[in-house]
C-alpha cells in the first residue's frame, strides 16, 4: 500500500476541514493541527520502494503552482484532496481484503501467523513481532497460572544499508561459517526473534549479531500492569500513546527504544473469548509514519489473526483427539506368539481426516495358535472409528472363547445389527496353528488374502467371499488351508488395492505381482523380511491414488517342527499324575534339557493332578520346545482355576501357588470343550 503525504482539507473559509478518521482518532487530529502551518502546495507523493501502490491507482493531481487557475479555486483543491483520500482508502480496503484472505487460508497455528507476517511486510510495515499466550487456551477452558506471552514469529525487510558479504571471502578465525548473502525476502526464521536479515530499526538493533540483545522471547503479564491494561482495551494504539509507551517495554524489554513519530503500533489479539496475544508493527525512520486509518487496518488484521489462531488451536485439539481415538482403537504393539512373526501398517486416508473404520489385530489363542483379523467399517468419521472399536472388542472376546472363525463372523454380524441398521463392515478372520501348519479362514465381504511362498510364488487365496457384516440373515463359510513354513500371509483393506483409477480386482493382481517381484529378489532358502516387505507393498499406492484408509497385517509362518512337540492323552485317574511325570522326564532327556527335569516334573504333576480330579474325559498333555519350554494340560471342565492363598491347616490349594512362583508365565483359557492350563519355563 502506497504511503502519500496529504494536505488537510480546506473549508470554504480556508480553515482545515477534519476528516472522519481525524475526528475519531486523537493522533490523526494532532497531525491535522500540525499540518496547518504547512504550505498547501506540495509535490505529488512518490511511492516507496517495496510498497505496492494498489491496482488501478490514479495519476497524481497537479500542484497549485503548475495550475494557477486551480490555486485560485479552493473548491478544486478540496476536490483533488478528496479524490486522493478516496483512492488511498480504496488501497487500504484492497490490502485488508487480500491480507485477511491470506490469514484465513491457514489451518494450523504456524500457517495463520505466517499469513499475518507475509501479508503485512512490506506492504504495511517494515517489521512485525507476533506474541501469543503460552500455553494457548482451547475453547471454553479457563487457563490457570500467570499469563505469559511468547514470541511466536518475527518478520522483517532486509536492511539495504548492509552490504552482502563476499561468498568467496575466507571464513572468520573463530571457525564459524561466513554469513550468507541476504535474500530479497526473509525466509522462515530458525527461531523466534533470531532472524539474521533484520533491518536496522532502533527497536531491533543488534538482533542479528546478538540474539540475546533482541526482544525477549517470553513476557509475563503482571496484575495491574500497563501491558495488561492495553491488552484488555483491545483497541490498537500508536507507539507514542502514553499507554503504549508504558506497555511496550514490558513486552519488548526495558532496554529497547521504541521508534518515535507513530512508527509503531501495538495491536492486541483477541479471540472469541479472551486476549490471546499481541502484534507489534514497525516502520523505519525513512518511511512515512502510520496514519489514523492505519489503526483501523491494524485492528482488522489483529481480529482476523486472533480468530484464525482460535480456529487453528481448536482444529489442532480435534486432530489430537482424533489421533488418540484412532491410536487407542488399534493395538499399540503386536504380540509375538510362538511360530509366527507379525508386522503391520496403518495409513489414514488424509492428514486432515485421520480417523476411520479400518482395523487389524492379532490375538493369541490356546494351543499356541493365533487369530489374525483385518476389518473395514464403512466411512471415515469418528462414528466409524467408534463402531470399529466395538467390533474389534467383540472379536477379541469371541476369539478368547475359541469359537470357529465362521461363528466369530456370525456373532460380529449380530453385533453390527444391534449397533444400527446402516452399520456395515467387511472382515477376514484367520486362525493359524503352528503345530499342524494349517490355517482356517473365514471371509465377510473382504478382499481375499494373498500368500507369498518361500520359493517366490505369490497366490491369491481362493476362499468364499461371503456377505459383509451387518447384512443379517446370511451364513458364513470357513475353509482350511495349508500354511507352509516360510510363507507370508498378507491381510489388507480395500484402500490398498482400490482407487478411483483401478477396481479392486485389478489392484489385487497388482499386489500379487508386486509380491512375486519381491519374492524373486530373495534367496530360495530365505524369506523376505517383514518390515521392508510391508514398505514395498505400500509402494503400489501412488501419491494421488490413496482415497481410503489402509490397514495391512503381514504374518510369517515359521511353525513348530514335529520333533519339538510331545503329545499324550491321559485317563482321568489318580495314577495319571505319575505317568505324566515319567513322560515329561523322557521328553526332556530327548531334547537334551535334563536340568529342567525337577521343576518341570513338579509343575506337571500339580497341573495334571488338578485336571484328573474333576475331569470325566481323557486329559491332554503337550510339551512344546521353542524359545521356552511350554506345557499345556487340557480337560473337559469349563471352570477356570483360581490362584488363592492356602491357610496353614489346608491340605490342598498350593498347586497354582507353586506354578505362579516357579514358572516364567502361566495362564488358563476356556475352550469350547473345556479349558486349557499352560505354563512356560525358560530354556537353559
Number-wise, the strands total: 23
**How would the global form be characterised?**
elongated
Mean pLDDT: 78
Helix count, DSSP H or I runs of 4 or more residues:
15
The helix content is 25-40%
Low-confidence stretches: 1-72, 167-202, 205-214
Summarize the structure.
This protein is an alpha+beta fold. It has helices spanning 20-24, 26-34, 68-71, 74-104, 109-120, 226-233, 242-252, 292-329, 382-400, 405-419, 504-520, 530-538, 576-591, 597-614, 655-662, and strands spanning 9-10, 16-17, 127-133, 147-156, 218-221, 237-238, 264-270, 275-282, 340-347, 358-365, 369-377, 425-433, 438-444, 450-452, 458-460, 478-482, 488-492, 550-557, 565-570, 619-625, 628-635, 665-671, 674-682.
Write the SSE topology.
Blueprint: E1 9-10, E2 16-17, H1 20-24, H2 26-34, H3 68-71, H4 74-104, H5 109-120, E3 127-133, E4 147-156, E5 218-221, H6 226-233, E6 237-238, H7 242-252, E7 264-270, E8 275-282, H8 292-329, E9 340-347, E10 358-365, E11 369-377, H9 382-400, H10 405-419, E12 425-433, E13 438-444, E14 450-452, E15 458-460, E16 478-482, E17 488-492, H11 504-520, H12 530-538, E18 550-557, E19 565-570, H13 576-591, H14 597-614, E20 619-625, E21 628-635, H15 655-662, E22 665-671, E23 674-682
Antiparallel strand pairs: 1-2, 3-4, 3-8, 4-5, 6-7, 7-8, 9-18, 10-11, 11-12, 12-13, 13-16, 14-15, 14-17, 17-18, 19-20, 20-21, 21-23, 22-23
Helix pairs in contact: 4-5, 4-8, 5-8, 6-7, 8-9, 9-10, 13-14, 14-15
